[in-house]
Each structure stands twice: as structure tokens, then as C-alpha cells.
């Protein structure tokens, strides 16, 4: 299906959910008390069932809004700490944003260190021979007079 069509169907289902119409059997979740809710309402951080069984991460005592008192009602649950998936996504986006600058800094440091090492080695070897020394070789040294 095209993404636009899927989005339109999702909006239509959410609209039906908001108006309180009962969902078809293949698109529904049945609470322990018999209340039937839309599948879209499962694991949406809102308790729709009297025992909050439509949420994997929440129970009535941990949901900040508590549990609804009647079928068709809902209570929003909010967590102060981000979920594992939210933290993982934050770390991925942070890591992606930091990896390139860190790698470029490290690469720059490697080039600087390599340049310094080359300079030190050249100094230890002494000055490079000039063109005359390369052609004629070393000059003889006369000892004791001419």
C-alpha cells in the first residue's frame, strides 16, 4: 500500500477510536473486564482497560493517571525517565552527530604527530648533503702540512 493511503487509514481509525465506535473483531483488543478497544490503543502509554492490561509497561499503580473507571475511558501514563528505546535513539542520534567531528579531530592529531616525528628523525640524521658533496664525494683532509 502507498504510504499516503496507510496514513489515511490510520487517521480514519484514530478518528473512529476518538468517537468511541466499537472496533471490528479483527482490529480489537479485549480487556479482562470485557471492554473492547481498538488495537491502536494498545501500548500507546494510555490505560484504556480497568486493569491497564492494554499497556505492557504500565499497571494502575505506576500509571500517573491511574486506571479508567469505565469502559471507553482512558488515562494517560507519563514516565519521568525515558524508555529504553527513547534512550537508545537519543544515543544513536548523539553518536551519529559526534562520530564525524571526533574522527576528523583524531585524523588531524595523527597527521600532526606524524609530521613532528618526521621532523625529529630528520634532525637526528643531520643536514642533508649538498649538491657538490653528492657529485664529488668527501674531500680529502691533509694532515701535517702541504
Automatic annotation (TrEMBL):
<protein>
    <submittedName>
        <fullName>Snapc3 protein</fullName>
    </submittedName>
</protein>
<feature type="transmembrane region" description="Helical">
    <location>
        <begin position="98"/>
        <end position="120"/>
    </location>
</feature>
<keyword id="KW-0732">Signal</keyword>
<keyword id="KW-0812">Transmembrane</keyword>
<keyword id="KW-1133">Transmembrane helix</keyword>
<feature type="region of interest" description="Disordered">
    <location>
        <begin position="125"/>
        <end position="146"/>
    </location>
</feature>
<keyword id="KW-0472">Membrane</keyword>
<feature type="signal peptide">
    <location>
        <begin position="1"/>
        <end position="20"/>
    </location>
</feature>
Amino acid at each position: 500500500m502507498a504510504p499516503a493511503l496507510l496514513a489515511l487509514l490510520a487517521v480514519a481509525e484514530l478518528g473512529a477510536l476518538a468517537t468511541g465506535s466499537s472496533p471490528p473483531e479483527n482490529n480489537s483488543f479485549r480487556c479482562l473486564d470485557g471492554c473492547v478497544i481498538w488495537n491502536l490503543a494498545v501500548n500507546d502509554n494510555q490505560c484504556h482497560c480497568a486493569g491497564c492490561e492494554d499497556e505492557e509497561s504500565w499497571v494502575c499503580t505506576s500509571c500517573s493517571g491511574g486506571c479508567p473507571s469505565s469502559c471507553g475511558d482512558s488515562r494517560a501514563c507519563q514516565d519521568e525517565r525515558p524508555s529504553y528505546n527513547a534512550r537508545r535513539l537519543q544515543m544513536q542520534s548523539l553518536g551519529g552527530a559526534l562520530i564525524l567531528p571526533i574522527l576528523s579531530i583524531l585524523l588531524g592529531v595523527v597527521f600532526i604527530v606524524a609530521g613532528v616525528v618526521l621532523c625529529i628523525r630528520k634532525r637526528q640524521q643531520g643536514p642533508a648533503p649538498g649538491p657538490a658533496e653528492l657529485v664529488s664525494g668527501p674531500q680529502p683532509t691533509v694532515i701535517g702540512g702541504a
